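--- STAGE predict ---
source: upstream dedup step, 1 unique chain passed
mode: sequence only
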Amino acid sequence: MPGRPGPLRRGSTCACGAREVNLVVGIGLRSGTPYRELRDLVHDALQEAGGGTVRLVVTVAGRETEPGVQRLAASLSADLQTAPAEELARQSVPTPSEKVDQLTGTPGVAEAAVLLTGAELLVTKRRSTRATTAIGRLPAAPGYAPAERHIVHRVIAERRDVRRGFLQREIPDDVLGRVLEAAHRAPSVGLSQPWDFLLIRDVATRRKVHDLASAQRDAFAASLPSDRRQSFDGLKIEAILDTPLNIAVTCDAGRGGRHVLGRHADPRTTWFSVAIAIQNLWLAARAEGLGVGWVSFFEPAEVAAVLDLPTHIELVGYLCVGYVEEFATAPELVRTGWAARRPLAWAVHQEEWGRRGLPGVAPTSIVDDAVQAQQNAVRTNSRQLVRLIVGGDPAQYLEQPEALVVQLSPQKPTADFGVLWRPARTPVEAVELGVELARDLALQGVGEFVVQIVEQSELADAMARGLRVGASACGVTTAG
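--- STAGE serialize ---
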């Protein structure tokens, strides 16, 4: 047709000579809309936008199979993405249509598709006989389509540390290969890739590891207060013999030699790299329908001896992997009441430590949060008691399973999980640390605090105040 464009090109350089503009094209169309109509409509809208490179073509889910829209995306060398109608309906579009809303469930497909990508709307809805388009400018490299983003966040949310319900079903080699490939693609400091994966199927070897875990389980149980021990007795801590495969994930701290980029200032990055590889493995396994349980109830050196690892190789993770009957809706420790998840708002600080708040929410102090929460606190039914001893010699108290010694001195004490080092610099900070400690213990199922100050000081008194405020906010009883 004279005066109409030929095949669309991917994009054009901005006439002003500035850096290339990345564009997104939103498309709404009826079934059977031909490519020529879409091409002409989009060409005119791109001209109005002033040129740029089209990175994305986005339409409502279900229309991606239309030959016209597929050819349009191909002619632009752009990615074709879709969005569910309900996601599009959440966007506030400048030119809504009741008719479109009735037909598709959203008042504006083309404009909403652009806005959903985070783009700035440059050209509002343009119509042809059977289609609409809108053009937007992407502020950065495009992300995934909404449906694909949902899958990413879903696999993260549904990952579980699985201990029960494994099936004696072999894992196909191609499935296991994909899972290991995902782990091997993890980022690592200086691309040193310090990990290795030892696949263990031999029952005799796994039985030896199981015996080590059982011994440590018994030792941990013996260290617990009686009420906590009763709760622990119902928890399953490993599935070493229940799965067809165990994977030992190791670390070679010297891999890459002397000059590994980024490791010289913080050698811990080597072990961080291995932990990331394990997380990659875990998420890929969940996507494949495989359960993973990380066993930590043993001394790594003892397991390394059973596995006959080279002396310079360290064990980081021991994983039980296999198909399962089901994935629980929540982690086992949450379902059994052993512990609760820490709210994200507690973990986000804005600009400086202690100014907590989610993005878009005015930050507040932990003390203000706790005082406000006291009004709505619900008394916990937990009977677990923790005796918080501020100051003093830890050796006098650590034989008591319920004792937790809090040290406020600037000198870091010898590592011991019965001793918490909280070097408060001011009374205000001591109050805040006390509130935080109380909240964290409440999440671990503590139902009663007994606060005992052994060494009187302004900081100790402030810490005790914070403990009581935090406990009250969480519905925990305090004494002392």
